[in-house]
Amino acid sequence: MERHWVIGDCWLGCERSGVSVIWLGPVQWDGQHAPFNACEPCLERLKRQANAYFLERHPATA
Q: How many angstroms from the chain centroid is the CA of residue 46?
């Protein structure tokens, strides 16, 4: 899967603007939509958290 990075705002923690970000999905609230983007450092942190969760709580079975 090819990732499409654009210049924008990180909504995942660091809140930096004007950085390379990738779209993670829409934020939906009260009938409105906004793009949920993350920069690479924040995305890597999120992936590490998810992997730790999967390994600790839901290990993959063969």
A: 6
The yes-or-no verdict on residue 9 having pLDDT over 90 is: yes
Nearest of 34, 15, 36, 33 to residue 25 by alpha carbon? 36
Tens of pLDDT, residues 15-28: 999 999 999 999 99
Four-point Cα dihedral 37, 8, 46, 29, nearest 10: -30
| Residues in the chain, total | 62
* Long-range pairs, 4-10, Cβ under 8 A, ≥24: 5/40, 6/37, 8/35, 8/37, 9/37, 10/37, 10/38, 10/39, 10/42
**Whole-prediction pTM value?**
0.76
